[in-house]
Write a structure and sequence with these properties.
Length: 171
């Protein structure tokens, strides 16, 4: 059952390739089909971070330009400092067993006192090897991608806007 003192939050991340049109698409008109070119311009990448609290019916989808240990540490601080979890004693975080998903990443990103404050509020539970599908955040990322990120998005801000709208609607 749901326990606001010990919430369970599933977390996963996914890179998104940013692309733009190389030629302006011709929209559909009466008696004419829409025309667009398969060629695109690569504009870089960004990372979509998915946080889902399945029993609380809540999710948030921050976007960053990279996926490093320091980026992960900042997402964990954002989670711990989220007003939703102000009364939580511990937040159980279900996540993949990647080298960046480590309490040591907190100490790489923050001063020791801040890193300890964040670490003391987290309990990390790793999915088994080849079992990342057990993480509900992975399922939510799949839905987000199909519903909002499947077309050409040329900027991190556009991905962020789509992800924010999607999570608000889904919540």
């Amino acid at each position: 059952p749901y326990d606001e003192k010990r919430p369970v939050v599933c977390m996963d991340e996914q890179p998104v390739q940013l692309t733009s049109e190389s030629r302006t698409p011709i929209p559909m008109a009466p008696g004419r089909i829409a025309k667009d070119d398969n060629e695109y311009v690569r504009e870089g990448t960004c990372v979509v971070w998915m946080f889902v609290e399945p029993l609380g019916g809540w999710r948030t989808v921050p976007v960053s330009n990279r996926r490093t240990a320091v980026n992960w540490a900042h997402r964990m601080r954002d989670l711990v400092d989220n007003p939703r979890f102000a009364s939580a004693e511990k937040i159980t975080v279900v996540l993949d067993d990647l080298n960046t998903h480590d309490i040591g990443s907190l100490y790489e990103a923050f001063a020791p006192a801040e890193a300890k404050r964040i670490a003391d509020k987290l309990e990390l539970v790793f999915t088994p090897k080849h079992g990342s599908w057990l993480n509900i955040a992975e399922c939510e990322l799949s839905v987000l991608t199909r519903q909002s990120l499947s077309d050409r998005l040329e900027s991190e801000s556009k991905v962020r806007s789509r992800a924010k709208s999607w999570s608000q609607e889904r919540n």
